[in-house]
Specification:
It contains 14 helices and 13 strands. The radius of gyration is 22 Å and the shape is elongated. The protein has helices at about 1-5, 20-35, 50-55, 90-100, 115-130, 140-150, 195-210, 240-245, 265-270, 285-290, 300-315, 315-330, 335-350, 355-360; strands spanning about 10-15, 40, 60, 80-85, 105-110, 135-140, 160, 180-190, 215-220, 230-235, 250-255, 275-280, 295. Helix content is about 40%, strand content about 15%. It is of the alpha/beta class.
């Protein structure tokens, strides 16, 4: 009887480039809500296996940039529609239909606060022309909350925990002090990620600490420029379970991005018990770093990277294990369970009558 009341609330989630971790988050929310609500997505850019099996029912794929209606999809207009972004054409018409029918739309926005002129102007446009279209907003963490406030959302309508990986995939297996002396980068080999500066910094660092290696996993146009240096291993894109195995063997994740909305890989590393070397431009730095587990440099700089890498190399076993514990403790604030809880909290706030009877029956 509990689920009957919840199923009266029609829910849909739209996710552009739906990733595997997103599917896992949604699967946890489905379990928490009590039924397999509809999921509408576009395919991710990188090949990921297991997506259709994980969300085996009520999963609909769209072509990016197309115009769609709920009728065309063979679906009823939902009461609550969550969707990523606010400029994706394939979600705009669907969201408009929801509003026109009296439903509510929740934005899933991953941008973090940067405060530049471009973001300020775009934020003002959103505040005056788009804000009223969204009943609430779901953001990754602290920096996303700051931006949401600037966009005009009230505190009570801002919810965090949008991103997170699964502890069933990424897990802590070995004490950090007993792991190989390895720095790890996982991501795109592109200018924004700062990979060339990272390799140049490592070349300087390696002269003094030749026992440390740098492992780079990913794909992108700069791949060939990263190869051929002592101690540097460049490897192609891997599936999440393969990345998890690598992370469980690494001491420190480095993400030297010039810009990074959140950085899911940082949460994966924290779940794996790794230390973190990040730029302050990485959105998740505030959420996942402490004075013990992370070094956050103010800007991308070869010299700052070398200095930070040297500090990690000189940590005692006790410091490394404390670093590991802090990463693990911070990691539990994000992932499928926190996402599902936040998702249900949003639904209860927007449609409290849909949950009153079910809550009473539980009691």
């Amino acid at each position: 009887m509990v689920d009957r009341y919840r199923q009266n609330l029609k829910i849909a989630v739209g996710w552009n480039g739906l990733p595997l971790y997103g599917a896992k988050l949604i699967a946890a929310a489905r379990e928490n809500v009590g039924y397999n609500f509809n999921v509408i997505g576009t395919r991710p850019k990188v090949p990921i296996s297991g997506m259709d099996e994980l969300l085996s029912t009520n999963l609909y794929w769209l072509n990016a940039g197309g115009d769609y209606s709920w009728k065309e999809l063979g679906l009823e207009v939902p009461d609550v529609f969550f969707h990523t972004g606010w400029r994706y054409r394939h979600f705009i018409s669907l969201a408009d239909e929801v509003r026109a029918s009296g439903g509510q739309v929740v934005g899933m926005f991953d941008n973090n606060w940067k405060g530049g002129i471009r973001q300020t102007l775009g934020g003002l446009y959103f505040r005056f022309f788009m804000r009223k279209k969204y009943a609430a907003v779901f953001v990754p963490g602290f920096e996303g909350k700051k931006l949401a406030l600037f966009l005009g959302f009230k505190k009570e309508n801002i919810f965090s925990g949008l991103y997170g990986s699964s502890g069933k995939i990424f897990s802590n297996q070995i004490k950090c002090s007993q792991r190989p002396k390895c720095f790890l980068f996982v991501g795109q080999f592109i200018h924004r990620k700062g990979v060339l500066e990272l390799v140049n910094a490592y070349k300087k660092f390696h002269c003094q600490y030749p026992e440390w290696t740098l492992r780079l996993i990913g794909q992108g146009g700069l791949a060939d420029q990263l190869k051929g240096y002592p101690g540097v291993m460049v490897e192609p894109f891997k599936q999440p379970n393969e990345i998890a195995e690598v992370m469980s063997q690494a001491r420190v994740l480095i993400l030297p991005s010039r810009e990074e909305h959140w950085g899911l890989v940082v949460h994966e590393a924290a779940l794996s018990g790794c230390g973190l070397l990040l730029t302050s431009q990485v959105g998740s730095a505030v959420d996942l770093s402490t004075e013990n587990n992370a070094i956050v440099i103010e800007k991308l700089s070869v010299d700052l990277l070398v200095s930070a890498m040297s500090r990690f190399a000189n940590m005692s076993d006790e410091q490394l294990d404390l670093m590991q514990n802090d990463s693990l403790n911070r990691s539990i604030e994000f992932g499928p369970e926190p996402w599902a809880e936040a998702f249900l909290t949003i639904l209860k706030k927007l449609s409290p009558d849909s949950f009153k009877s079910s809550d009473n029956e539980k009691n």
